[in-house]
Every structure is written in structure tokens, then in C-alpha cells.
Amino acid sequence: MKRFSRLIMFGLTSILLFSADAFAAQRVSARSFGLGVILGEPTGFSAQSVLDSEHKLNLSLAYSFNSWVQVTGDYIFMKPQWVTSLTKQNSPVSAYWGVGVLLGLLTDNKNTHGDFGVALRVPFGLEGMLAKEPFGFFVELVPGMRFAPATDLIFQGGIGARYYF
User: Fold this and answer.
1) What is the C-alpha to C-alpha distance for residues 63 and 73, in angstroms, rounded to an integer?
2) What is the CATH number of the domain that holds 89?
3) Residue 154: which of 72, 56, 39 has the closest Cα?
4) DSSP state, 75?
5) CA gyration radius for the chain?
6) Closest CA to 119 of 74, 56, 67, 55
7) DSSP secondary structure string, 78-106?
8) How many domains are there within the chain?
9) What is the pairing mode between strands 68-79 and 116-121?
10) 146 within 8 A of 116, measured Cβ to Cβ
């Protein structure tokens, strides 16, 4: 069962990682792909593909403190007008929300429910870019619902930074 779960995890991860171009409606000019880190729950690596000015695809490979190695994929809707309406001026910070999936593998044998996890994620966050450098920063809160190995609510979040190419 463990080998089958890892095979499923590898297959779904491959689909998420290599399908970014399939989601791209239109690419923005330069700096449309970022790599970086996220610190929090979970902690790991973060990638972002800018699809257009209003849509992004976020991916992560991270370790959860609940003994899970997880891959996440989120489709993001950028909402800069949310920040502008609050501050009453243009801001380099943009709000966002999205929907995504979490796939996880248990790293210890303490869980009796199974070693493969699947959850639905709904990230909310703020993201900003430096004006003259290709660095972006973000903070996000991510409620969700796990469907396997057991059904329950999850709550994740973190801060992070990415370098854009």
C-alpha cells in the first residue's frame, strides 16, 4: 500500500508541476516565474507561475509539522483593488484568494488511518513586489478540508519570498 501511495503521489505531483503551461491563458512579459521559500505550517519551497495580471499558479513542496511531506497546487485570483479600496491609494501590495489541492505523504508510522493524504485548500493572502528588484514577498492563511486519510478541517499559513526570473 505504501508503494502504491508513493506512485500516486509522484504521478499527481508530476501533473501539477508540468501542467502550468496548460493553464496559461497569456504570459506576462518578463519575470513570470518565481522560486523561493515559505516558512510556517508548512515550511519548504515555493514556486509561482504568473499566468496573467489577474491569475497565478502557486506550487509548493514542503514539510508539515504534523509529519507530512506535502505538495500543494493553488490557482490564485489576484485582487489588487481590495488593498486599494482600504488604503485609498495605489499600493505595491495586492490581495489574493484561490483554490487548490494538497497531497501528502506521512513520514512516520504513528498514524493508523493511512500514509497518503488529500485536502482541499482555500488560500487568502497579501503579495508584494520590490519596485526595482525581482523579489516578491507574501503572507497567507489557508483554511481547508482534508478528505484522506481522515476527514477534518485543516489550517495552514506562512510567510515567504520568491526570486522571479
Assistant:
1) 15
2) 2.40.160.20
3) 72
4) E
5) 16
6) 74
7) EEHHHHHHHHSS--SEEEEEEEEEEEEEE
8) 1
9) unpaired
10) no
CA-closest candidate to residue 138, choices 39, 68, 42, 52: 39
- Of 42, 67, 68, nearest to 58 by C-alpha is 42
Q: Position of cell 526570486? A: 163
Distance between CA atoms of 75 and 45, rounded to whole angstroms?
Answer: 17
Angle at 131 between CA 127 and CA 132, to 5 degrees: 130
How many CA atoms within 13 Å lie on the side-chain side of 100? 27
C-alpha cell at 108: 512516520
Enter the pTM of the model: 0.79
Domain interval for residue 85: 2-164
CA gap 33, 124 in Å, rounded: 20
CA–CA distance, 104 with 119 (Å, rounded to integer):
9
Q: Name the strand (E) or helix (H) holding 7.
A: helix 2-18
Report the pLDDT value the prediction gives residue 103, as an integer from 0 to 100: 96
Whether the CB-CB separation of 80 and 95 falls below 8 Å is answered with yes
Which segments in the chain show pLDDT lower than 50?
1, 4, 7-8, 12-13, 15-29
